[in-house]
Amino acid sequence: MRLLVTGGAGFIGSNFVHQTVRERPDVEVTVLDALTYAGDRASLAPVAEKVTFVEGDVADAELVDRLVADADVVVHFAAESHNDNSLSNPWPFVQTNVIGTYTLLEAVRRHGTRYHHISTDEVYGDLELDDPAKFTAETPYNPSSPYSSTKAASDLLVRAWVRSFGVQATLSNCSNNYGPFQHVEKFIPRQITNVIDGVRPKLYGTGENVRDWIHVEDHNSAVWAIIERGAIGETYLIGADGEENNKAVVELILELSGLPRDAYDHVSDRPGHDMRYAIDSSRLRTELGWEPHFTAFRDGLAATIEWYRANEAWWRPQKDATEAKYAQLGR
Ligand code: NAD
Ligand code: TDX
To answer: 177 forms bridges with which residues in the sheet?
Structure first.
């Protein structure tokens, strides 16, 4: 199989490439990545000899057409991915998430290529803390932020290209990922690296907001299950029953780092901050036989803290610029 992975120098995409090289030596991997602030070739260094890397934009129609012509399957991870950035400057989100997805869809339509679209549970909006419901593929779209609305737009393009043009596509909407190679702008790596730097973790608002955490390896094993066994046109929700509130996550990071559990600060809240995400992944489990392996969040988090301690050279170059952006926002 010749596989084109967009966004393969980012957090989830690079972990996907590592897992694929490790477990599927028959797959030829080409990565297309624009190396924005969020992309880092160092994340692919351990597999560099086994992967073809192309630096370029998913909205570059000529380049995308050429790469899709040589692929059997496309997995589309590339995106602008951070909610806080989307509140400061939405335009790159519209350009990459909407126009970029459109560009890929037109190419897979021309070449009849199998396409898997990576998306997020944030397209469904949020749930109340005491709501027994979880998101399913039937939950109406109700995105809150520029980020999630552009991801929702991209999902709807995929569904329309399936129905109108017969594109051979599947979609997945996953909950919050954690693990190695995640940019220090995101919640868990930001707090881990703050603690390493002797800075107190920063909780937005009350810290009551709930996220449904999944280890990135489990997200990526689910993506492979969908590529191999998913029904064309179908949407699969990926989640590992990992609901935790932000306060509990910060307390656990502090405890695992040998610090008092209350050694954190509250900062101003994110505008429009979604309260709770929760995924019902039963379709993926019953229809495709997928199961998560990293179900002990405490262990997964401890291993992630270890990874950031051991790989300071990877994240250190991003840390100051990231914190300077947050300082401007007062967070
Ligand atoms: P990331 O920001 O770490 O990585 C994104 C990658 O895409 C980077 O390597 C970047 O250089 C590349 N990129 C950005 N714009 C590009 C462009 N125009 N052309 C080519 N490459 C470009 O993001 P991530 O957290 O790894 O997320 C990957 C995907 O998974 C995204 O589609 C995101 O919406 C989705 N997702 C993320 C999470 C999460 O918790 N992080 C959860 C569910 C879904
Ligand atoms: O310093 C912080 N303090 C804090 O309390 C940061 C950076 C975040 N938070 C809160 C906001 C959220 O409630 O932590 C939670 C997680 O924040 P993010 O890491 O920014 O993730 P989120 O906004 O939930 O979106 C993530 O999951 C869905 C990814 O960034 C998206 O790409 C994915 O689609």
So the answer is: 214
| Domains of the chain by start residue, with CATH | 2-178+214-238 (3.40.50.720)
Pairing of strands 114-120, 169-174: parallel
Q: Can you tell me which atom of ligand 2 is nearest the CA of 249?
A: 14
* DSSP designation for 140: P
User: Does any ligand 1 atom lie closer than 6 A to the CB of residue 38?
Assistant: yes
81 lines ligand 2 (CB under 6 A): yes
pTM over 0.90: yes
The separation between CA 130 and the C-alpha centre of its own chain, rounded to angstroms, equals 26
Question: Phi and psi for 98 in degrees, rounded to 5?
Answer: -95, -60
Note the pLDDT of residue 12: 99
Q: What mean pLDDT do residues 187-213 have?
A: 98
State the pLDDT confidence band at 213, using cuts at 50, 70 and 90.
very high
The answer to whether the beta carbons of residues 117 and 171 sit under 8 Å apart is yes
Whole-number Å distance, alpha carbon 307 to ligand 1 midpoint, is 20
Active site residues: 121-122, 147
